[in-house]
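DUF4055 domain-containing protein
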Amino acid sequence: MLVVLRECMEKEDGFAYEDEIQYRELALEDGKFICRVWRKSADAGSFSVDSEYHPKPKGEDFWDEIPFTFVGAQNNDPSIDESPLAALVEINLGHYRNSADYEDSVFFCGQVQPVISGLDTAWRDWLQDKGIRVGSRSPFLLPKEGSFTYAQAQPNTLAKEAMDSKRDYSVQLGARLIEQNGAVKTATQSSGEQTASTSVLGICVSNVSEAYTLALGWCARYLGIKGEDYRYSINQEFIAKVAESGMVTAIVNAWQSGAIRDTDMVRALQRLDLIDPADDPETVIDAIRNGAPNLIGGNNGNGE
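Tokens:
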């Protein structure tokens, strides 16, 4: 089993730093992990082993595995997965091209061009010789039947329409940076519409969490920490919770009727961000029970 990493290192020559390529070999030989660094020799010009390491976990003689994991879009095996953002990147590149065309057309269409008509050859030569000044403080002399106006090209809307089309398509591909519809929707509707687009993201997040969990386990083993369960987990609730009044009322009514426990009520409100998710449920319950009563009524403080 072998893993080779291509690395870029900085080498100082006394005046500046130069980038050089080196290769780090992670190998499992005879069931033992070994690390070698390959660098190019200045004399031979070929790569040779510059250093060799035998990492050991604390309290053990050797590693029996290579502490390395791949992170992929579909799974964490060595095969290269198709990028989930590939289609979005291609659309974004096309949007950039349309944007350049649009800005170019805006520049040309936005610049007016003076147009003089009704001139004979003598007037033309006289104006070219004396020069033309345009502005409210520069009277413009013209012959009889002569006219002066500005010409401006019609705006090019084709590039703008292409940009808008790609923007809308980006939303369909799952771009969360653009809001397609600002209408208020219920949490169920919003969740249902975004399920398909967040499923790919959920797989990616799960793979990252799994890889970091493995890395934490290797770090703990290297330090000799045993008996601890280390886990790294990224929140997969990508859709913001919407606290609807009917949902909150149902939770409170169920709590008041004894259908759910105090801790269940607090956790439900924490998921809706009505209560700080970092607060301990028992602390919140104690604060609710021991808090001062809120008197509703007149301004005399006795509820009348």
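Residues 55 and 61 are 9 Å apart (CA to CA).
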